[in-house]
Amino acid sequence: MVGNYLNAINGNYQTQAKLVEQNATQQLLNRPSDNPVDYCQYLTYVNNDVVNNQYIDNAKNGLSWMKGTDNALTNIVSELRTVVQQSNQAANGTNTLSDNQATAKQLMAIMQQVVDQANTEVGGRYLFAGQKDRTMPFKMSPNTVDRGLAKTLDGPQSAFFGKTVTINGVPTKEPGGLQIGSLNQMLSMTGSDGNTYYLDPSTGYVFSKDFVQNGYKDKLNLGQTQVTAADAVGRIDINTVAVLPAKTAPPILNLPSDAAAVTNFKGSSLTTDQANTFNASVQKGFINKYFDTINGGLTQAGLDLRKTGLATEPAAKDAKGNPLTFSFDTVAQHVVTYMGDDNKISMVKVSGPTNVVCDGVSANGPDVFGNSDIFGTSHGTAVLNDLLTVVAQMNNGNQKWLSSDGIHLANAGHDRVLQEQTALAARNQAYDGTITTMNQQNLVIQQDLNNVNGVNVPKLMTKLITAQTIYNMSLAISKDVLPKSIADYLR
């Protein structure tokens, strides 16, 4: 009887103690033994809650980083808009040399501000340096260097000087010049006759400045839809085949022999891999023989691009019948180099593997300013160096160049940065939506936790008062329930 009574009163005490603990912790489950099945569910919900909150923190950190990046890009786009406006104004034929030089000084100051904005840092971390965010990513040269000069083709020029290429048996029209990003460009050269010529580095054909600027329009009026070999003054061997293994190296692209051959011309035959690697092959195999792969200056000390002496085969003739040789044109300008890397800073916002496109919250140099220029240089700074060319040409008073190439480069640079800002805004919006979704998911998780581990206070207090009453009553009647000795049973 004593044993039964003690078991019962201890049971009442344990029930009361459990209810007191639940009231103190406001949790139904304080250890696995309280309810193994519910406790297993509880641990799952707790883990979901931890993971969800971590993703929310990641997304908020990503938003903070992207907002800082967007602010810097907004300022850069605004500055580049000024460059576009001033370039259009400087291209006006009524401007004097002193007017353009004054504008060039203003634009040089703006370009320095753009570089400063590109070096924006938050908490000692540079926004546009990729994962090398402790290294200042952009540096402008203190002095000018001789950078090669490109001829930028507009839409009609790019179409006319395009090449017919057969890729895996499918005829395809490739734009004229070498396509770098949104630009289609040729290399500017000066002939031994003192005239300007343009070299299409994807074919090796050399064209006179007058033909590229105006003469091709006469051909269009006559019904010729594509440039031909007869329109060129000659062809230079660009020797791209030796650069890459024969399996991947594309052949030099050909042109129809003359206007009559345009219709039936089938063009060069390429594989998909050759077509994809063509620009890089031309840069490595030909252009980088003359141009520095780091800063766009000369390839080596003592090499003067203005004395290159390139010749066509067969030899082109000048007006007097003398053989023509060509040298590359250069422009003395400042250049910007990029010291960051191409990696992105990611803030994972959803479960599963990391996706750089979706989870990347940063914009590095190549993202904003381009991966390369026609010379195979300016990694991460192509837009900046092209715009610095505009500034240099403006300072030189070259209004004809500004009215064609300069305006085109200024607009292309502005559009490139604006495009990256738009892409960043889309990622920003995606992170905003993700945070909203995860906050809603957090409500569901909290409801699940409350269902399995939440305390109903009124119900708990009722149980606790009942348990306390029973326990106190059990103690009160113990003197009547438990006999003091065996004599109590004999009476």
Summarize the structure in words.
By secondary structure, this protein is an alpha+beta fold. 49% of the residues lie in helices and 13% in strands. It has 13 helices and 17 strands. Strands 5, 8, 9, 10, 11, 12, 14 and 15 form an eight-stranded antiparallel beta sheet that branches. Strands 7-6-13 form a three-stranded mixed beta sheet. β1 (121-122) and β2 (125-126) form a beta hairpin. The radius of gyration is 38 Å and the shape is elongated. The two termini are 18 Å apart. The model has no long low-confidence stretch (mean pLDDT 84).
Task: Briefly characterize the structure.
With 491 residues, the protein is an alpha+beta fold. Helix content is 49%, strand content 13%.
Overall number of strands: 17
Strand content: 5-15%
Q: What is the element string, with H for helices and E for strands?
A: HHHEEEEEHEEEEEEHEEHEEEEHHHHHHH
What is the gyration radius calculated from CA atoms?
A: 38 Å
* Largest beta-sheet details: 8 strands, antiparallel
Sequence stretches where pLDDT stays below 50 over 5 or more residues = none
Q: Termini distance?
A: 18 Å
Q: What structural category do the secondary elements indicate?
A: alpha+beta
User: Can you give the helix content as a percent range?
Assistant: 40-55%
Q: Kindly report the average pLDDT value.
A: 84
Number of helices: 13
Shape: elongated
Q: What secondary-structure arrangement, pairings included, does this model have?
A:
Elements: H1 2-25, H2 36-90, H3 97-118, E1 121-122, E2 125-126, E3 138-140, E4 145-148, E5 150-152, H4 155-160, E6 163-167, E7 170-174, E8 178-180, E9 183-191, E10 196-199, E11 205-208, H5 209-221, E12 234-235, E13 268-270, H6 272-285, E14 310-311, E15 325-328, E16 330-333, E17 336-338, H7 356-359, H8 365-369, H9 382-395, H10 399-453, H11 457-476, H12 478-481, H13 487-490
Parallel strand pairs: 6-13
Antiparallel strand pairs: 1-2, 3-17, 4-16, 5-9, 6-7, 8-9, 9-10, 9-15, 10-11, 11-12, 14-15
